[in-house]
Every structure is written in C-alpha cells, then in structure tokens.
Amino acid sequence: MPAASPIQDTFGRSMRDLRISITDRCNFNCLYCLPENEEAANFYRKRADPGNAKPIKYSWKPKSHFLTYEEIIHITRLLAAGGIDKVRITGGEPLLRRNVERLIEGLAAIPGIADIALTTNGFLFPRHAEALRRAGLNRITISLDSLQPDSFRQITGRDGLELVHESLSLAHKLGYSPIKVNAVIIRGINDHELEDLAEFGREQNVAMRFIEFMPLDSKRSWQKEHVVTKREMLERLEKRFELIPKPGNNPAETAKRWTFADGTGEIGIIAPVSEPFCGNCNRIRLTADGNMRTCLFSLHEHDLKTALRDGATDDDLTQRLREIILTKEERHHIGEQDFVQPARTMSFIGG
Ligand code: SAM
Ligand code: SF4
Q1: CA spacing 20 to 30 A to 344: which of 13, 31, 169, 238?
Q2: Which residue owns the Cα nearest ligand 1 atom 10?
Q3: CA distances, 307 to each of 80, 288, 317, 319 (Å)
Q4: Which phi and psi angles does 154 have, rounded to 5°?
Q5: In ligand 1, which atom is closest to the CA atom of 141?
Q6: In this structure, is residue 5 part of a structural domain?
Q7: 43-63 burial, b for 16+ CB within 10 Å, e for fewer?
Q8: Which residues line ligand 1 (CB under 6 A)?
C-alpha cells in the first residue's frame, strides 16, 4: 500500500502526536483540574474510605458511551497512516480502566507508531507497572505536585504520596525510560516547593516537568495571578542550581529543558500561558467518548464515534479525520480579552 500523505492543517503543521483520553473518571480531585462533584471521585473514595464519601448523585453513563480499545486502535491506525507516530494515553486517570495493557499491546502493533507513553497520578501504577511494561510501554509520566503529605492531600484530595514514591521506584526497577514527573506550579498553593521538587527530581533521576497552571480547571477559578511563569520559575531555580540549557531537537516539543551543571538530571518547563508554543504544535486529541479535539482550548469537538459505529469505511474515516485537522486553530487566546474557557475541563479532555 503506498504511504498516505502526511495529515496537515491549514498552517502547514503536520500532525505527529496523538493524545488519547481513555476515561474521564478519576480517583483524585486535583484542585486545578477536576469537578468537585465528580462522580468517580465519590465512587472511588467511597470504596477506599466509606466514612469520607459524599452522596452519589450521578447516573453512570453506559459503557457504550466510551470508545472500546478496538475503536481507539482503529482510529490510531488510520492516523498512523497519515504520519502520527507518537501516542500518549491519558485521562482522567487512565489506570482506572481495565486491562490498559491490552490497549498498549494493540497500539504497539500498529505500523508507524514508534513511541507510546502514559500519564498517571501514580495511585494505581504499582498494581499495573509490570503488565504495562510487558505490553510494550516504556515511557511513563507521573504527576506529583507536592512532597508534603498534607499539601499533597490538599491538592489531590487523596493520601497518595507514598504510592507515588512507590511508583517511581518501581518504574526505575522495571526499566521504564524516560521517567518524567509533572508538577503544576500554582502561586500560593505549591510554588514554595519549586526548588525542593527540582532537587527531588535530580535525586530520583527523573525528568521534572514544571507546568504553568492553565485555565482548564473545573471550578473556573483560574486567574493570571495564580500562574507562576516560566521566567519566574527559571529565575528562582537558577538562584539555587547551576543549569545548562539543553538544545531542543524537536521544535514541537512542549518543554524547554535544562540539565544540572554536572550533566546529571533534567528540568523542563512547559509554558503554554506565558510562552505559547502553538506555532509548532503537532498534537491532536481523542476524547474517551470519541470526539476529536484539535487543541486543548478548542471550543468545538468533532464526533467520530457515530461514523465509526455507523460502519463508515476507512477511506471515509480518513477523509473525515483530514477535514477535522484542517480546522485546527492557529493558536490559543489565553490571557486575551476574547479568551473563552472550553466547556470541558482537563480531566475530560486529557492532558
Ligand atoms: N490523571 C493523570 C495524571 O494526573 O497524571 C492523567 C491526566 S491529567 C489531566 C494529565 C496532566 O495534566 C497532569 O500532569 C496534570 O497535572 C495536568 N493538568 C491538569 N489540569 C491542569 C491545569 N489546569 N493546568 C496545567 N496542567 C494541568
Ligand atoms: Fe485526576 Fe489527573 Fe485531573 Fe488530578 S490531574 S484530577 S489525577 S485527571
């Protein structure tokens, strides 16, 4: 079969990176992300700690609302034929879905998919780490916003710090590489831990990723004043550490990276708010319920599930995917007067 032409948007950007959210449920309730009344948080909290459960008012969406692994693999195969070579599994908390390793295996078998990563809050990772590794996952990103148990609980709604530590040592033991740690830095919440998190990353031999707080939180409480900008983070980090910039070899990379002067460890800062990287964006997103999103901040989603289930041919679906990508926005408008926060928040879109 002749190779298909790369899938491009109207600004000439070729799509390479697919972010797949496999569930919008979560067992955490991070204050920068998830609806307070999120049904799943209650559900899982009730199981783990019946005394702490809030009433469940939510009626569960039927399983059929969400794409099956076969459907996800099908869409990914079509996109891989058009140049997608990198996939990240995310959510919600992806490890709440059963047998994620089956999905990893299916994705790893798609010709052209060279790189599969997974982002997790780490709570369930120790239970799945080995099976995921066997299935072909080698890149893992674990979220960790605080090294203090109380503050970790305040941010995430769970006592999960120990499990994150366990996840990191297990990831090393099983040979995951690279291991990244995401920390969203929010003024007045955890910004005082910036340097300690950097030190921790170095000691643990993981690549730290400090992320600017984005207006994708469910409480819509984001304000510019909460954002600790890349410049501010870097100024502070450089007071404590001697950092050497790492040359970027991929213009679409979201993080600007530094190494410590002795060449060990890595710090990256992801600055979508203060230094947007839209010009080189090569990412598209598939939501758990089968919609394509062309930007984290898209105000419109594109339904694929209906066509998929109505028996559309691969040619029809590919054509539809190409049309969707032609609508990819040139850039986001955070911080501008005309910025409108998307209706769906990060846990639904997939970070
Ligand atoms: N549940 C998994 C986790 O927390 O790692 C995966 C999904 S989560 C939405 C993916 C990443 O998005 C996490 O590292 C999280 O810290 C980040 N994130 C969530 N809300 C954010 C926000 N408002 N601004 C910046 N990053 C955010
Ligand atoms: Fe859940 Fe991840 Fe959102 Fe935290 S950031 S609430 S762990 S989806």
Answers
A1: 13
A2: 351
A3: 19, 15, 7, 12
A4: -65, -40
A5: 5
A6: no
A7: bbbeeeeeeeeeeeeeeeeee
A8: 26, 32-33, 90-91, 93, 119-121, 143, 182, 184, 211, 213-214, 216-217, 346-347, 351
Pocket test for ligand 1, best of 211, 213, 296, 339 (most atoms within 8 A of CB): 211
Q: What is the β-pairing status of strands 283-286 and 115-120?
A: unpaired
Q: If you measure from the C-alpha of residue 25 to the centroid of ligand 2, how many angstroms do you get, rounded to a whole number?
A: 9
Average pLDDT over residues 273-300: 90
Instruction: Give the model confidence (pLDDT) of 148-206 as tens digits.
Output: 999 999 999 999 999 999 999 999 999 999 999 999 999 999 999 999 999 999 999 99
Q: How far apart are CA 314 and CA 244, in angstroms?
A: 47
Nearest CA to ligand 1 atom 9: 351
The greatest distance separating any two alpha carbons of the chain, rounded to the nearest whole angstrom, comes to 60
Number of structural domains found in the chain: 1
Asked whether residue 297 is domain-assigned, the answer is: yes
Phi-psi region of 108 (alpha: psi -120 to 50; beta: other; left: phi over 0): alpha
Which protein residue has the closest C-alpha to ligand 1 atom 2?
Answer: 120
257 and 270 in contact (C-beta within 8 Å)? no
Domain contains 138: yes
The CATH number linked to 155 is 3.20.20.70
Please state, as a whole number, how many other Cβ atoms lie within 10 Å of the Cβ of residue 324: 21
**For residue 318, what are the domain limits?**
17-349
Sequence-separated contacts (24+) of 61-67 with Cβ below 8 Å: 65/289, 66/22, 66/23, 66/288, 66/289, 66/290, 67/22, 67/286, 67/288, 67/289, 67/290, 67/305, 67/308
| Residues 233-267: tens digit of each pLDDT | 999 999 999 999 998 768 788 899 999 998 888 99
Residue 2 has pLDDT above 50, yes or no: no
**Residue 3 in domain:** no
Pocket perturbation via mutation, ligand 1, pick of 96, 140, 141, 143 by most ligand atoms within 8 A of CB: 143
Ligand with the closest atom to the CA of 34? 2
pTM over 0.85: yes
State whether residue 86 is helix, strand or coil. strand
